[in-house]
Amino acid sequence: MRKARVLFVSQEITPYLDETHIGKIARRLPQAIQERGKEIRTFMPKYGNINERRHQLHEVIRLSGMNIVINNADHPLIIKVASIPTARMQVYFIDNDDYFQRKSVLTDKATGKYFDDNDERTVFFNRGVIETVKKLGWAPDVIHCHGWFTGLIPLYIKKAFTEDPLFAETKIIFTIYEEEFTKSLNKKIIDKAIIDGVTKKELKHLEDATYVNLMKLAIDFADGISFGSEKVNEELVKYAKKSGKPLLEYKGEAEYADAYNEFYDLVLEDTSILAD
Q1: Among candidates 71, 46, 226, which has minimal Cα distance to 146?
Q2: For 50, which DSSP code?
Q3: Gyration radius from the chain CA atoms
Q4: Which DSSP helix (H) or strand (E) runs through 137?
């Protein structure tokens, strides 16, 4: 039986940014899952405030060079990689000069407001991850998404890439955290997010692109849902439970690694991977 493959996609990972709850889990969980016998790959955005020299990032030329078209404009996809030696773990970074050179993450340091183009940055990151995984030729059995910035991946995998052999049996787990954004994303996100295989009908939640509606979209196309914080938006808790999909409640630091490892096996039960 071959090892199951888990692709982790997170909006932030420790130690590349200031430590956050999401960042800590996205750093520790992949290592723990790798130690439990599964193969892993890990992705995050290459925000401009990540110190490339300190963390020894370098560009992967063979993976870079593609353009992603958003809103009728070409945006070059640049892939960088770094290692966390203590974890025997590599992290792939999605980079682009238009979206990820500013010296902050999701908000303007001067005003504290979310960037107006966070919708495009989200689209670019989500599409960039998928295209890079395709170039790697590494077929994930599970894609585990962490944080709202990864919210379009379930839709894209299930609709735009459903016929791609690389993702034929891929299951999506989406983890919802306490963090939210209060202002809706750009109202034109629907037009910007459409790609072959995705229609406005699938994006109906984003007619008002609030945090809650983006998470509902992720829940609709995920195969399993988990709660990454003790307190999660109550409307989303009800929506996730009503979906009838496998659900993993919040687990503390001492137990979440084993809990997720078992949860991956649960969502893979109807695939060929566990029977190989």
Answers
A1: 226
A2: S
A3: 17
A4: none
| Domain count of the fold of the chain | 1
Q: Quick one: how many helices (H) and strands (E) in the chain?
A: 9, 10
Distance CA 239, CA 250 (A): 16
Cα pseudo-dihedral 46, 69, 183, 240, rounded to 10: -80
End-to-end CA distance of the chain, in Å? 5
Query: Which residue range(s) make up the domain with 256?
Result: 5-275
Other C-beta atoms lying within 10 Å of the C-beta of residue 67 = 11
Q: How far apart are CA 273 and CA 61, in angstroms?
A: 32
Question: How many residues are given for the chain?
Answer: 276
Structure tokens at 13: 């990972």
274 — pLDDT class (breaks 50, 70, 90): low
What distance in Å separates the CA atoms of residue 146 and residue 260, rounded to the nearest whole number? 13
Average pLDDT over residues 56-71: 94
CA distance 266 to 86: 29
Any idea which residue has 């709202």 for tokens? 148
pLDDT at residue 276 in the model: 47
C-alpha to C-alpha distance for 261 and 252, rounded to whole angstroms: 14
Task: Measure the CA–CA gap between 225 and 244, rounded to whole angstroms.
Answer: 10
Per-residue pLDDT at 201 exceeds 60:
yes
Compute how many other C-beta atoms are within 10 angstroms of the C-beta atom of residue 6: 25
- CATH number of residue 228's parent domain: 3.40.50.2000
